[in-house]
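Posting for a labmate who doesn't have an account.
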Amino acid sequence: MPDPLDPASLDLAADPELGPLLAACPDIAPLRFRDGECLVTEGEDSQDLYIVRKGSLVVEKALPDGTARPLAQIECSPD
């Protein structure tokens, strides 16, 4: 389960791209995910939007034998 973050500690409103989005969508809640946590599971209905500011994520395809095949790895940095 992701941990909530204090939005004030991130100064996201100062970001020229995120500032307008945050102003238009006041229900956005910053979250911190731990290594290995899943954002979305294949086949699951979701209306969530994730903006990754720092870290990395892996997109995987579930296989019939219960394993997963990596499709992409994405590295994100706030700089």
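Reply:
Got it, the structure tokens are right above this. Strands lie at 3-4, 31-32, 55-62, 68-76.
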